[in-house]
Each structure stands twice: as C-alpha cells, then as structure tokens.
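Title: Request for sanity check on DENN domain-containing protein 3 prediction

Description:
We are preparing a figure and want to confirm that the structure record we downloaded matches what your pipeline produces today. Could someone re-run it with the sequence below and paste the raw structure tokens into this thread? We only need the token string, no images.
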Amino acid sequence: DEYCFHNGKTRSESSRQMVSVAGCFVPFAVCVVSRYPYYNALKDCLSCLLTQLKLCQDFEVDNHIKEFAAKLSLIPSPPPGPLHLVFNMEPLQIVFPSRVDPESPIIDLDLHLPLLCFRPETVLQVLTCMLTEQRMVFFSCDWALLTLVAECFLVYLHPLHWQHTFVPILSGQMLDFVMAPTSFLMGCHLDHFEEVSKEADGLVLINIDNGSITCSTSSGDGMDIPDVPLLAAQTFIQSIQSLQLHQELDLAHCSSSTDLNEGQGRRRAWQQKLNGQIQQVTLQLLVDIFREVKNHLNYEHRVFNSEEFLKTRAAGDHEFYKQVLDTYMFHSFLKARLSRRMDAFAQMELSTQSEEDRINGMLISPRRLTVEKMALQRSSLQKAAQRRMVVSMPDLQDITVVEVQPRKSSLRQVDAVSCKGCSRAEDVAPKSIYTFEIPEVHFPLVTQCVQTYYADFVDLLSKAMSFLGPDNSVLLACYFYLRGFIHLVQGKLLYALLDFQNLYKTDIRIFPADLVKRTVALMSAPELAQVERTPELKRLIKEVVDKPREVAKADDHVKNFELPKKHMQLDDFVKRVQESGIVKDTHIIHRLFDALTVENSGHQKQIDPETFRDFYNCWKEAEVEAQEVSLPSSVMEHLDKNECVYKLSSSVKTNHGVGKIAMTQKRLFLLTEGRPGYVEISTFRNIEEVRSTTVAFLLLRIPTLKIKMVSKKEVFEANLKTECDLWQLMVKEMWAGKKLADDHKDPQYIQQALTNVLLMDAVVGTLQSSNAIYAASKLSYFDKMKNENPTTLSVPITTSEALKHKINPSAGETSPQAIDVLLYTPVGILTQQKKTADAHPTLWCALSEGKVVVIDASSRTDHQHCFIVGASKLNCMVMAEQSQVWIGSEDSVIYIINVHSMSCNKQLTDHRTSVVDLIVQDGEKTPSEVYSCSRDGMVLAWNVSTLRVTSRFQLPGHTLTSARLHQGRLWCCTGNSIVVVTTNGFLRQELKIVESFYNKSTSFLGFQLIPEEEQLWAASAEYSEVYIWSLQDLTQPPQRVPLQDCTEVSCMIRVKRQIWVGGKGLSQGQLKGKVYVINTERKTVDKELVAHTDTVTTLCSAEDRYVLSGSGGEEGKIAIWKVE
C-alpha cells in the first residue's frame, strides 16, 4: 500500500477523501532489460523513478515511464577502460561503470555480499562445487539476494567461466528444472527448500539466509565435496579475514556527509576498493590451485599430461583435482593457457612467480628439487606434523614430496590465524577512474531534442579531449570510442569512421571491428567515394574490412597425453617425445631415436610402443627417485642453494668408504652410509681425467671408475660394478659440458649436458642388453665434440677476454630461432610493474615470425615476458619514451608496446610496405618525435604524444634500408646510394655507389656517422671491407679497412670510438659468426671476436659499456661483449 498512488496521494489518503468514489487499483511493474549487468546503477534509476511517480497524477504515470525509458535508451554503455559515465536523474547521480579491459566482466555489484552471508570455509566449498560443475541451487527468502549472490560467485571465478545453465530465480511453476541431469546453477525461494531437497538427488543446496551448504541425497550419506588444496585454502581464509567488510568501520574517522550524492560517492569509492581486493583474493586462490598446470603443458602440440600433473599433487588433493580436471571449465582454461593468453590469471601468475620458478622455466634440463626447496619443505613438513595436519606415513623422514602430505581434516578445522605462510589480502592501489557527465536530455522527446542531445554529447566529448594530456592515451581512446558511436547514431558515418580510425591506432583492444564493418556496409556510393579520397580512412577499411578474417585454428582442441599404440618412425617419435614433456629440442630427440634403435636391424628404423613405454616409465621412475632424495642438513650445508641431485648411484665401495655417489649440475660427492656424511669428490670444472678400469678381488675383476682431479693428487676410485660404464659416460659428458660452458660463457651447455646424461640413464634402463652402453653413447654429444674436434670448440684468447656471457632466448623451444633485432633499455622503465628499487635494465629480442622476448638484462636469465606482434619478421626497434617501445615490421605496421603492461594496444598503419628503420635523436631520453622509414622510400615523422604524422615525404626511385638523424638532417641508405635530406624531404647531398666501386651491382648494407671526426663509415654487400668518407667532400675516394677472412657483412654500430661490424667469416677453417672491432682513430681492426656458429645478424649497445650480438637461426643466441 505504501507505493500505491492516486492523484499523487497514497491510497489511504485518497480513500479518506473519496469514500464515495468506486475504483480499483491494479499493480504493475517496471522492468529494465539490459545487455549488461548494471545492478546498482539500474537499481538507482528505478529508485529515482519511484520517487518521481509518488509526486505525479495518475494520468501522468505513463508519460513519466516513457520519458524514463527514453532517457535510459539514449545512454551508451561505456567502452572498456577507466572512463565511467555519469548522468543526472533527480535526486541521484547515476554512474555506469566500465569494465577494466575487454576480457573482464562489468562489476556493478557489492562483491562482499557472499562474505557477509557465509563463512570463508563455506565460500570455498561453494567455489569448489562450481569448479567441479555440480548441480547447485541457492535458496533465500529474499528474492533479490538470489541473483546478487549467484552473480558474485560467478565473478569470483573470473577468468574462468561457468558454461552451464544459469537461472538465478526459479518460480514455483519452474521447480521441475532442478530435475535436469546436467550441471546447472539455479535459485529458489526458501519456501521450496524441503520440496526440492526431497524430490531431487545429488543437488548441492546452498542456504543464503543461514550460510549453510548441504546435499540432497536419498541415502543420507551427507556431502561429498572435495576440499580445496590446503595451502591455497589457508591463504584464501587468511586473506578474507583481513578484509574490512563494513563501511562504517572504514569511514568512522570521516565526517558525516550532508549531501546525498557525496555520501553515495564515498560509498561507491569504498565499494570499488573492496571489490578490487576481493577480486585479487579470489584470483590468487585460482593461481594457487592451478599454478603448476603450466609445467605439464606442451604448447607446440597442445597436450596436457594430466596423469603426471596429478602425481605432483598431495594425495589428499587428488579427489579435488580429478573432479576439476574433467570439467568443461578447466578444458577452456587449458585452451587459454595453451594459446598463451595474457588474461588476469596469467598476469597474476607471472607477477607472483618466484625467481626460482622463472629460472626453471628457461631450463632445458628436467627440474629437480633444489637444496633450498628441500630445506623449506622439510621445515614445512615438521610444522605440519606439529599441527597434526598430515597423516603419518612409514619412513616419513626419508621422503620429500612436492606438497604437504595427505590430510583428513576438513576446511572447517583449519586454523587460519596460525598459518604463518598465509598473507593478508593485498591492498590493491585503485587504478585511476575518470567520469564523464552525460548532457541532459530535453523533453518533449522529439527528433530535434534528440539531435540537440547528440550534438551536446559530441561537443562535451570534444572539449574533454582538448583538455586531455597527451600521455593519457587510454582515456583518449575511450573518448574516441564514444564520439565515434554518437556520430554513428547521428548518421554522420564519415565522422564516425575518422574517430574509429584514431581509436584503431590509439588502443586497438577496444576497437569495434564488427561495428566498423557494418558502418561501411551502410554507406552510400558518394560516402564511399569520399572515403577513397581520404588516405587514413582508405587504409582503415583495407586493414579492417578488406583483409580476410583470420581463420580459427583447426587445432584449438586440447589433447591429454597418451602413450603411443603404434610403431613410430622418426617424425612421429619426435612429436610423441615432445608431447610427453621429456625433452623439446629436436636435435636431442634425433639422437635419442638413434640410441633406442641401435638393435633395429631393418632398413627403416622405427620404435615399437613397448620400447617407448619402457623408456617413458624409466624416465618417470628416475624423476620420482630424485624427488624422494632427502639430504641431511649436514650435507646440504656443503651445497649451493640452487643445486639439485640429478642422479644417485647404488651403494658402492670407494676409497673414501661405502656410500652412494651423487651427481648435481655442479659436482660429484659421496653420500656416506651409516651416519650420513658428505665427502667431496670433485666439481666438474676440477676434473682432469675419467677412466674405467678393473681391480682384482679374489678371482674376480671388478669394474672401477677412477676420477683424477686437477687440484688433488689422490685419485677417487669407486667399485661401481655394472654401473661403471654408464657413470663413466655420464661424468665425461658433464665434464665436457662444463668445460664448454666455461669457455663459451654459456650456462646452457651444462643444462643440455644434464639432459643428455639423464637420457643415457633412461636408455640403459630401457634396453637392458649388451648394446645398452653403446646405445647410450649415442647421446654423449659434448664428449664426442671434445674428443673429435678439440680445436674447433676452443675459444680464441681475444674472444674469451671480451666475452662476458651468452643468452639463449629460444630456451624451451623445439629449435633455435634467428635473432632479428636487439634493443637495450636502461634502468627504470618497469617502475610501474615493479618497485623502483627492483627495476632492472631490459633486453628486447625480436625473433622470427613476430615473437618478442623480454629479458632482465641484469640477471641475464629472467624472462620477463614473451608476446607476439603480427606474424612477420621484425626489422627495427626503438624506445620512444619511458613507457613505449616501437617495433617496425615486415608487414608495414609499427607496433607500440607499453613497457608497464607488456601489451601491444597501439598500431600505426600509415606505411604501405615494410618498415625498415625507426629513428630518434641521439641522446634524447624522452624523444618527442620519431621518424619511420619503409622500404618504398616513404619517410614519416611522428609526434610521440599524439601518434599523429607531422610530416611525410617520399624519396623518389629509391629503396630504403636504413637511416640516421644528424644535425637536423636525415641520412638515408638506399642501397645504391646514401642521400642527405632535410626533415621535409629536400635533397641536399648524395653519395652514389657507382662512383666508388667497380662492381656496380653491389649495394650499401648500412652506415654510421662519426660527427666529431666528420666521417661516414659504410659497408657493402659484395666487399669484405669497411669504407670511410670525409663528410666535407663525399666525392673523394673512400679509405678502406679490410676485414680479414670476412665473407659477409650484415650489421654495424658505433660504440665510443669504435665501429663494431657483424657478419660471417672463416675461423679455424670453418664459417662462423664474427664481430670485427675497428678503432676509428687508427682505422684498424683491433679485435676479431668469434663466439657464434651462425652469422651475426644484429648488434646493440648497452650504455656503451657492453655490446650485444645476436646470431642466425642455426644457433639463435645472444653474446654480451665488454667494451674497452
């Protein structure tokens, strides 16, 4: 009755005045239908409508509702980003929030509502039911809570998605829906609880009102909901308990609000902050549960090894993972991981990854428990035992497992407060939020008023854009999106396309490609003709409309690893081994194939399923044995924290007593028996000789391994018996790998040697025949190299002194990839991603087919990120400002990378052919202008802040390859000449190659300018020389600096008073990658550096202290050189 009105008065008031008037009151409802879940905003709108209806006459109700509906229909939905839309609907200011990014949901809910209704343990159980895709029904006597609480739980799962039926409210006539046999999530009034509980079996019944969760079963056995993994559950509970869920407590220190909208604004700000914290807590829960899934994925063949993943889980968690791994939700999650999608899960997983896990992700040898992790797990096991949270097991002290041991305690018994390993909810710094107030809608709602509203909308947007700083491109993109949309509904299609074109190069993430295609389809012939006359719109249509849509990958499925059932030839064997996760490198797998087929007498070698199964089992058994190694504390004190035990012999007699020989990546040591002790045998670097012999014992000759050290006179002897030949192979391979790693300053040699050693062990265990050792010797790669070609592997003294380190950006790939471009960026560019003190210089590596790998240049081992820009070769990179790296591609696009988010949201598409060079003024830390050159001779000047072309010119009849900016003029290498032009394109000088070379078919590859010496240095494709011209008179013949034994020049840079030239040349009778260091004063080659087995393709300077060289696809490594 409170909300029933007649002539603006309540029913009771009107009835007293009109007793004699007969009438009836018919209830009606106003339902707002939206494509987006604006729960709070639309609730506020309806509340405002209700206030207005109280004051109106009965004949005015329809008009008010029509005006209300019209007003809502004219409000656009904000694009993804930081811009929220605000409009006035008396007496409230209504806010329509935007989603954070295109992949995130719109959050217009109070996400803490379930946390007020349920204990954290119950919240975990509900999430478990959703992750295992149960048949779930929410109950409440408050209809509104059913939808709100269910929607909150769906948000908790992001970026995972509930893919089954979702009906938040069921009427009494629809209760038979709960009999459906498939997974669903539904909601009912609490009055139906008993009825639903009795009629349907196997339902999870969640009572919102009393915070309980039960299961409907006729047998009465109770719930069978598996527990969330213990450590993840403890962290979640601790974080939830640290949240401040009551606004009154959070705002107790603030003054009372005397303005309704101000109070709403405070509440909204508090809710947004709390929502962000809750999303971080639930996302961290998902990361803690699924973090190690990536260790069991094969990206090349899209395979997930679920069996091996389950083996790494604690026994008490098996039931949980078995149920989760069999769901549609997890299958979609795997698809996203295998596609390397950088969603919220991937970003948090990367940001919370430990340094050890980052390094392990780059290792090509199998992972094992480090000494540090052994100590931590032993400590956690002891604490867990004290809390009685594990089930006792026989010989527990001798077993080390990956996670906490099986438990029987339920989540309700977790002592969250005492969990020292748990962290508080992260206090997330709220991202900057901007609001844009929508203009008033004038009534009556006729065409003229609507057009006036649209015109006011466009004017306000244009005004806001004019006041916007150039560095806020994310907000600018939102304005472009909204203005383009308003132009579209106005019918101004050309203006709309211009805004969308600006949006395309400002933030491609929110670019509405389908909307642009529909717009072009609606355009008339005169409008299309005008588009053709506008170069920017013509390029947009070519890029978005005319370009065929990429066909979805046919192999978008996910395979579960299975052992082969048919005989395998080489190609199939390579694929199967890669799928298994044992090793990825194709060359290593080829040698493994040779080893396993030594007994194959047929003309066509192949491996039968039984042999593969035996090999796979041997490999996995060795992994388990290594995981179960438990070293005493007295032994761990002698080892480095990152050392792992990779191989342990059986108990043998040695000249230092009886014990087991242990092999790590650094040394051999004896683990003595009885009272466990440590006896150092030798580091691999200290070994001088390894040989196998026999010693007499009674009438027997016992095979013995002898190891002679450089620093010791005593020879270590071990009676290894049947293991002797295998250990000899393994120790010699590790010894050779360590020598190569030291000589070439490349730690990956020792990692690859470890892989070879473990494969030898598995091959011997598989074959178990007289040919087993011979087969294993096929994998002795580095030892053979050392014995057969000792001179070719040696590093010249000059090279060794200058070489500091080598990096393999292709680590973990199936084969090396050519390094096309290198860029070094100094300290401080990652300050938004990390704390300022943790920011490090960064190395950007452009590999084949648009792949970019970002490496921490200080540690040289830490991959920060890896992403794909396009699918073509990348030609050039430059740092345009502290937050942007520009990359020019063979596909004519300039990709702009945000160094804080490591994402590519901007593309410049003004070039028509390959972008070959990007130029900024030398010495400028934050350049305001970037010049880009394409192969067809087009040069564009870009304003870095606005991303607009400030000038352009065409070099007629020339093919550009590179350019330099010197004294306000551009020096352009065009192959057959070097031309000097102004920044407006006017020709000032030209150096033609025909005037200096007899071979007129040759061309310039690159050049460098030395202003202080007034010299131009250049290299040619056909000559193994560097040529030097005087800038005062380019017509004079050049001086020549010969490059000894050089067969190809590919790149050159200037560092201090040196010119570094990269290419290929002869060294010790073989073609190898070479770097020539030329002194610019003496004009002589000071050094010839040889550290690559393939052509040096690119050179890069790191603050003039180091030079980095990248090699071609046969090697695909980066060498770091010291500059003198």
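Thanks, this matches our download. The longest strand covers residues 687-697.
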